[in-house]
Amino acid sequence: MAESKRRGASPSESASGSLVIRGGTVVDAGGTRVADVVVSGGVVIEVGAEVAVPPGATVLDAGGCLVAPGLVDLHTHLRQPGAEDAETIETGARAAALGGFTAVVAMPNTDPPVDSAAVALEVLSLGSGAACQVAVAGAITMGRAGERLAPIGELAALGVRLFTDDGAGVQDVSVMRRALEYARGFDVTLAQHCEDDALASGGHMHEGEWSSRLGVPGIPAEAEELMVARDIALVRLTGGRVHFLHISTAGSVALVAAAKAEGLAVTAEVTPHHLSLTHAELAGYDPVFKVNPPLRPETDVCALRAACASGIVDAVATDHAPHAPERKDATLDVAPPGMLGLQTALPVVLGALGAAGFDREHGAGSARNGAGRDRAQVMSVRDVLGLLSWRPARIAGLARDQGGEHGGPIEPGAPANICVIDPAATWEVDPARLASRSRNTPWAGRVMTGQVRHTVFRGEAVVVDAQVQR
Questions:
Q1: Is 319 a catalytic residue?
Q2: What is the number of other CB atoms lying within 10 angstroms of the CB of residue 63?
């Protein structure tokens, strides 16, 4: 077959032969450079300027684009097993690939929950042929009930590196202490959904100005911050390691910053929606904006952005939470919390952190839309990609030097998990055209700037020209 001049390529062509990503700007933890990338046998074999195209190779056009390590999502709800009407591992992985993700960590709040080797193996098996790697998080406690520890050692032996009761925080401090002590023996990380049930009970949005105006019971910021403070104290006591899921308040940021300054083993993530939306979105009682933790005031949004820029926040994670339409299309007090995030995360985060409008002549250093914004909230594109790729890969235990295959520099010998991003492309979010089985996106009808053009997973072009190939 002659060299292909088109952008597109079938999966079989990409998998069986060589693939060249031509004309892009490579951006990874090592820096920024204009280079072509040659892939063969699932690995990168050459990175350089104007490389020779191997005979029969497929060429993916990356002109005007960023070529980055594949994104890694620490926090994805794939709903399978138990809620396949909302999402399946296959459909969720397609959405992830379209969003530039080559790995996702599937949360354990399924039915049954991932609190045994059998369920973990089921999820891993279902994900084995997906369009991205599907890693699995295990539950901290049996049934996510917060009472008896799940078999952390047994799950760790299967390669599970992250444990959480996400959807619920571990309320009993003695149980959380035992979990941290036990987890140390297996070199795994406990991830906490920080919410004090007694304070949050009955709330449906942030407790503040808008909840008062709307007459909706609220959830105070302290419901999150008390558990963040408690678990920091437990890390100090046990020497364990905690990752804080979807922190959402300025108070939580301050607590995490102090813990890091003390040298404690804590990390934290934020979501795209907490970086870009406020509780004012709920003025129309639209349950699509109901999430947990709830959307917060602008002061919290600014604090989260500044924490990303300063390095206090370690990762951006989508908390992709699909719900079947009949469940989400209910009144605010009845509808479950959560929104879609995988396909829209990249442009939302680029915009929120000031990196949209990438300057192609100056690499990843320009942030054109940061004008008028506090400089503390503006980041380079490379640093934003770090929040979405190599930094979460390390927290998830998926980094190359941890035995994984994600997030590392694009260099010869590296696994070919790559996303190609057109930072100037614009597209309108149409819920009916998203890959997810659900439609609960807060961005319906909005025009996004920045789009994934191609995604390469284990050497195969699984997304070409923003179209999934599987």
A1: yes
A2: 12
Burial class (CB within 10 angstroms; exposed 0-12, middle 13-18, buried 19+) of 313: buried
With CA atoms as reference, report the closest residue to 273 among 458, 35, 443: 443
Q: Please pick, among 73, 231, 319, 422, the residue that the annotation labels catalytic.
A: 319
Residue 467 to residue 470: CA distance in whole angstroms: 9
Strand partners, 199: none
Strands 101-106 and 133-136: parallel
The CATH architecture to which 71-402 belongs is Alpha-Beta Barrel (3.20)
Q: Which pTM was predicted? A: 0.93
Residue ranges of the chain assigned to CATH 3.20.20.140: 71-402
Question: pLDDT tens per residue, the chain (470 residues)?
Answer: 333 333 334 333 333 479 999 999 999 999 999 999 999 999 999 999 989 898 889 999 999 999 999 999 999 999 999 999 999 999 999 999 999 999 999 999 999 999 999 999 999 999 999 999 999 999 999 999 999 999 999 999 999 999 999 999 999 999 999 999 999 999 999 999 999 999 999 999 999 999 999 999 999 999 999 999 999 999 999 999 999 999 999 999 999 999 999 999 999 999 999 999 999 999 999 999 999 999 999 999 999 999 999 999 999 999 999 999 999 999 999 999 999 999 999 999 999 997 644 443 333 333 333 444 565 668 999 999 999 999 999 999 999 999 999 999 999 999 999 999 999 999 999 999 999 999 999 999 999 999 999 999 999 999 999 999 98
Q: How far apart are CA 287 and CA 282, in angstroms?
A: 8
Looking at CATH, the fold of the domain delimited by 11-67+411-468 is given as: Urease, subunit C; domain 1 (2.30.40)
What is the C-alpha to C-alpha distance for residues 411 and 47, in angstroms, rounded to an integer?
6
Pair 386, 406: CB distance under 8 Å: no
Neighbours of 229 (CB within 10 A): 17
Which residues of the chain does CATH 2.30.40.10 include?
11-67+411-468
Contact present, 315 and 417 (Cβ < 8 Å) = no
Residue matched to tokens 């010869």: 412
Place of tokens 């990503």: 21
User: Phi/psi at 40 (nearest 5 deg)?
Assistant: -155, 140
Structure-token pair, residue 401: 């030097």
Residue with structure tokens 């390669």?
159
Partners of 28 in the beta sheet? Answer: 31
Q: Take residue 204 and report the two structure tokens written for it.
A: 């449906």
- Give Dmax over CA atoms of the chain in angstroms: 67
